[in-house]
Design a protein that fits this description.
Strand content: under 5%
Largest sheet: none
Radius of gyration: 22 Å
Order of helices and strands: HHHHHHHHHHHHHHHHHHHHH
Bound molecules: aspartic acid
Length: about 450
């Protein structure tokens, strides 16, 4: 019998997880059961993915740069990546702002809904936590992000998933130095990292065997902890605008894939879909990164020399979905609370949402922290911040799931685009977890 494709298995796991979550919501003690007995399976899966992220970045970036054999090629890839990332993010924010200004979802929110949402969430630890976190991030100087990118202890950076940019910085410096000591002397190092890279990619294959069960657990636990359905319905128009914008962004990516990269857009979607489904289930681009890298390299054919740089950097700084959401959310909150925005304010949103997407961590809920900074940049009254966030808090998790899909799809699209532009888009070379199983079983 033909094996069911991975994305179908994951999709079935997701649907069953949602159904199971809905059933358990209606059962007495059901939510507790899911939290105690089902959720841990999802948590273990996310931990496994994060476990291999740093070894994978290290090995694949070193392999990627040392295979280039030429520093100027790397500079070229780096420059194209940055320019494209900024370009796609600005397009995303512009789509968001256009939609929210035309459709005006904030005008339809009644005083009653605002009062109810404020009462429910404004003093909630979730909302207050985001404001406090934003305060911490903002109190630093304008060049702090550069300072933060440079580690003062390589082993500390390598042992901390939150320091992805530091890991990338160290690894690039290491790999360039390897090129500079000459091929002969660098060979032992290169062999080690080439082999490490193969091993870690095999770990991705193994971990992915459990993906259909893990997404079942992840979605069941999201469903049992979701908010009051009445509140979700009150925010339907706002959520619709965010989701509509995100869908337009996918259409944009597909056009780029079809026209510039000259690949069938639906083929692209099929190849990348397991990473998208995991992004949706985990709400974390960082946790999804190993799978994104595996799909883009083995299933799409992007050369490691490109993907090993473009994808880890993208997971940390390129968040098209998050910045689109920030644009929509900032204007929605202003509309609902009667805070007038000028054209200059909207331009400020473009700029700060761009910077915020660079600064947002690739973890669940990070986009909302940066939203506080976007709101402050347009002079939104500080005493109304909590009310503003309370308005959108109820739907943040489902929207986070959706925007993370776009963040990951955007990274994959840009990696294809950059690869195409430097002649590094080859043919897929799919490896299965059991390619060598017969030899060792
Ligand atoms: N969860 C998103 C990500 O990991 C970030 C955010 O928008 O909150 O890409």
């Amino acid at each position: 019998m033909k094996k069911l494709a991975l994305h179908w298995k994951i999709l079935i796991g997701m649907v069953l997880g949602i159904v199971f979550g809905l059933i358990m919501t209606g059962v007495d003690g059901g939510a507790g059961f899911v939290d105690d007995w089902i959720k841990p399976l999802g948590t273990i899966f996310v931990k496994l993915l994060k476990l291999i992220a740093i070894p994978l970045i290290l090995a694949s970036l070193i392999k990627g740069i040392s295979d280039l054999k030429d520093i100027s090629k790397f500079r070229n890839i780096g420059l194209r990546t940055m320019v494209t990332y900024i370009g796609t993010t600005v397009i995303a924010i512009t789509i968001g702002l256009l939609l929210v200004n035309v459709l005006q979802p904030g005008d339809g929110v009644s005083e009653e809904t605002i009062a109810k949402l404020t009462e429910t969430y404004a003093n909630e630890s979730g909302v207050q936590g985001k404001i406090a976190e934003a305060g911490r991030q903002k109190s630093s100087g304008p060049l702090q992000f550069l300072v933060d990118m440079v580690p003062d202890n390589a082993f500390h950076a390598l042992s901390n998933n939150g320091l992805m940019l530091q890991v990338i910085f160290f690894t690039i410096l290491f790999a360039i130095s390897m090129l500079l000591i000459g091929e002969k002397k660098a060979k032992p190092m290169k062999d080690i990292f080439d082999s490490l890279n193969e091993v870690v990619l095999k770990m991705v294959d193994l971990i992915m065997l459990s993906a259909p069960y893990a997404v079942f657990a992840l979605l069941a636990s999201v469903v049992v902890s979701s908010e009051d359905p009445d509140l979700l319905i009150a925010l339907l128009k706002y959520s619709g605008v965010v989701v509509g914008g995100l869908i337009l962004m996918v259409v944009f990516y597909l056009i780029v894939v079809g026209t510039y990269v000259r690949k069938n857009p639906f083929w692209f979607l099929k190849q990348i879909s397991p990473a998208q489904l995991l992004a949706f289930s985990t709400s974390s681009s960082a946790a999804t990164l190993p799978v994104t890298m595996e799909r883009v390299e083995e299933h799409i054919g992007v050369d490691k020399e490109v993907s090993s740089f473009v994808l880890p950097v993208g997971a940390t700084i390129n968040m098209d979905g998050t910045s689109l959401y920030q644009g929509v959310a900032a204007v929605f909150i202003s509309q609902a609370l009667g805070f007038d925005l000028s054209f200059a304010d909207q331009l400020t949103i473009v700029l700060t949402a761009l910077l915020a997407s660079i600064g947002s961590a690739a973890v669940p809920g990070a986009g909302m922290v940066m939203l506080v900074i976007v709101l402050e940049s347009i002079g939104f009254p500080a005493d109304k911040l909590a009310i503003g966030l309370a308005l959108i808090f109820a739907v943040d998790r489902p929207l986070d799931m959706c925007r993370t899909v776009i963040n990951v799809t955007g990274d994959a699209t840009v990696s294809m685009l950059v690869a195409k532009s430097v002649g590094k888009l080859g043919e897929p070379n799919v490896k299965e977890w059991d390619d060598h199983y017969e030899e060792v079983k």
